Amino acid sequence: MKLVSIVVPCYNEDESVNLFYSVVNPILAEIKEIKYEFIFVNEGSKDKTIQIIKELTNRESNGRYINFSRNFGKEAAMLAGIEAARGDAVILMDVDLQDPPNLLPQMIEDWLEGGYAVIYTRRSTRSGEPPIRSWFAKQFYKFINKMSDVHIVDGARDYRLMDRKVVDSFLQLKEKNRFAKTRVIVKESFPSPIQNSTQKKKAYQRRNS
User: Phi-psi category of 15—alpha, beta or left, where left has phi over 0 and alpha has psi -120 to 50?
Assistant: First the structure.
C-alpha cells in the first residue's frame, strides 16, 4: 500500500491546526488505497502553535512535527517537510484550509490511476481578494514570465502532489533560496493541473478577524 506524506507549514496558526486535522484526516481515511502521515512544520511561531502540534502528534499516531527556532520562511519550511517525508508521494498544504481538502481524492486518484508524477492546483478566480493584491499578483506573473525561461501559470499554488521520483530529483537541487513553483515544473515536464477557486475557509477568517 502506498504512503502519502502531507507536509503542512505552520506560522502562528494555533487556531487552525486542530481544525485542519479534523477536516483533512477523515477525507484521507476514506481513501482505502493509501496510508498517510502528517508532517507539521512550525516556522518559529510566536503563539501556541508548537504546543498544539505537540499535543496533536502525541495523540495521533499518523502525525510528526519539525520545530524551527525562528521563522526562516515558508520555502524553508516546505523543504524541511519534504526532506522528512517518507511517502511514495508528498502533498504540500496550507494549514488554514485555503487549499480545498476535497480535492485530495482527485489528486491521489490522478497519481495512482492516471500515472501523473505531479498534480498541481491553480486558482481559477481571485474573487474575495483585495483588488490591489490581485493587481500585484498579476503583475508578478507577467514580470517573472518575461524574465524566466520557465513559464509559471498565473494562480499556481504550492498545493500540489509530487511523486517520490520527483521529490528525490527536487532534493538534488542545491540552491539555498528555492522557489518551489518553478523548480518542480522544471523537473517534471508534464504536470496535471486542477482548477480551484480557493475559497476563504473558517480557519482563515477566524485568524484574520
Answer: alpha
Q: State pLDDT tens for residues 50-84.
A: 999 999 999 999 999 999 999 999 999 999 999 99
pLDDT of residue 173: 80
Q: Hey, what amino acid is at 84? A: A
Residue type, 190: F
Rounded distance between C-alpha atoms, residue 44 and residue 141, angstroms = 29
pLDDT of residue 183: 44
**What does the DSSP assignment read for 110-122?**
HHHTT--SEEEEE
∠ CA 117-42-37, nearest 5°, is 45
Partners of residue 67 on adjacent β-strands? 42
Burial call 190-209: b when 16+ CB within 10 Å, e when fewer: ebbebebebeebebbeebee
DSSP 28: H
pLDDT at 121: 85
CA distance 47 to 160: 27
- Spell out the alpha helix ranges (H) of the chain: 17-29, 49-59, 74-84, 104-112, 131-147, 164-171, 180-187, 202-207
The residue to which cell 489528486 is assigned:
107
